[in-house]
Amino acid sequence: MSEGGRSEGIPARITRAEIEAAYQAHAHSVVRRAESLLGSPPEAREVLQEVFMSLLERPEQFEGRSSLLTWLYRATTNSCLKRLRDRATRRRLTTENAVLLAKVGQPCPPDQALELRRALNDVPEELQELAIYRYLDALSYDELAEVTGYSRRKVAYLLARLAVLTEQRGEA
User: Model-level pTM greater than 0.70?
Assistant: First the structure.
């Protein structure tokens, strides 16, 4: 046992005070990330509340394997992806944007971010996450592996799978 009665290797839980400090320090980053993905300031503020309330209610979900900012970045992305999937217009947007999705291959400029979000609505969740990190955020394979927790090899496999899916949709 180490100091404080915890076993070695078991991460300490994040405290309420640490969460409050993180809110003060990083709320603007969470909102900016959510707004870039959702295109809606009110929804971005809702995501901010969801992410921090979730952390307050279940602090054990932050395991300390990465920095808190990295965890917030991923939690925000996942919350936004869930919102995008839940939108009633999912099917309509998928068919309207099949051509754009087929062209995904380079980091997209900010003016195309909305179109990318719409095009990703019918792509499996793990591929949506990677596509956003790769093509909207222009993360390298190594950065993708770090953020997602996947191996670099799995990142390459999933991006190849995304390319096949987008190619198939472009032909449809």
Answer: no
Work out how many domains the chain is built from and give that number: 2
C-alpha 42/C-alpha 25 separation (Å) is: 20
Amino acid at 19: I
Q: In whole angstroms, what is the distance from residue 29 CA to residue 50 CA?
A: 14
Which residues make Cβ contacts (< 8 Å) with residue 16, sequence separation at least 6? Answer: 56, 59
If asked whether residues 12 and 59 sit together in one domain, one would say yes
Q: From first to last of the 172 residues of the chain, give the pLDDT tens digit.
A: 333 433 344 446 889 999 999 999 999 999 999 999 888 899 999 999 999 999 999 999 998 888 899 999 999 999 998 888 776 445 544 454 444 444 444 555 666 666 666 667 777 877 888 888 887 778 888 888 888 888 889 988 999 888 887 777 665 4
**In angstroms, rounded to a whole number, what is the distance separating the alpha carbons of residues 46 and 91?**
24
* Domain span including residue 19: 1-86
Indicate if the alpha-carbon torsion angle 31, 32, 33, 35 is positive or negative. Answer: positive
* 145: number of Cβ within 10 Å: 17
